[in-house]
Amino acid sequence: MSPKSWNPFVRHLTVPAGQVCVEHVDGAVRRLLEPGRYRRPRRATYTGVPTTEQLLTTATQRVPDADGVVVQATVTVRWRVVDAAVHVAAADEPTDLLYLAAQLAVRDVVGAATTDDLVRGRGPALDETALTEAARSRVADLGIEVRQVVLKDVVLPPEVREAYAAQLTARLQGQASLERARAEVASLRALANGARLLEEHPALARLRLVEAVPMGSSVRIEV
């Protein structure tokens, strides 16, 4: 949000909540006015600056990662003004510089990340602190505090997404086959153990036979 200038013909000034007002007299900063009502002196001009936390989301930009794959990335910046006088004097549009800092931070961080890091959404280069510090260092002289920079969206090229999807499918199918093989081995082992047990204990074998016969049937066991 750009600083707001108050009408110079108004005799009183009311600073709303969530803002501070930078008072200039003869071009020099005289004081910072907190929310409240003030009588304005002659030759004074005022610029209102929001002090509440704000969000800035960059447009999608194309950035090559460490593997040379060009991805589309978007970030969101949480920020607020901490020094209104510096913020007003730093540039005509300080938020434009913040926007540029966020874009450069994306290039720094995504450019250091591998495609695997981007697919999994984690890795040393994608640490949120690294992204925040990359943006913060570029706006230290704007009276701005960058609280957090979040890599909001990363879109890989279609062919890369398809390749990773095929890789994931193959891995899951392999895991499923392995689990089926393990289940079959366990089943055969149980059958072998059961057969050995019945062979060693004939009475148990006859009992199992009786249990398997339908109700109402007669069983004759020859010894």
Structure explained in plain terms:
- The chain has 223 residues and is α+β, with helices and mostly antiparallel strands.
- It has 3 domains: 4-50, no CATH class; 54-156, Band 7 domain (Tetrahydropterin Synthase, Chain A), CATH 3.30.479.30; 161-212.
- The protein is built from 6 helices and 10 strands, in the order βββββββββααααβαα.
- It has helices spanning 84-90, 94-112, 115-120, 128-136, 158-200, 202-212, and strands at 4-5, 12-15, 19-25, 28-33, 36-39, 44-50, 54-57, 61-64, 70-81, 144-155.
- The strands form 3 sheets. A 4-stranded antiparallel β-sheet has the order 1-6-3-4, with helices on one face. Strands 7, 8, 9 and 10 form a 4-stranded antiparallel β-sheet that branches. It has a two-stranded antiparallel sheet with strand order 2-5.
- The mean pLDDT is 80.
Topology record:
Blueprint: E1 4-5, E2 12-15, E3 19-25, E4 28-33, E5 36-39, E6 44-50, E7 54-57, E8 61-64, E9 70-81, H1 84-90, H2 94-112, H3 115-120, H4 128-136, E10 144-155, H5 158-200, H6 202-212
Antiparallel strand pairs: 1-6, 2-5, 3-4, 3-6, 7-9, 8-9, 9-10
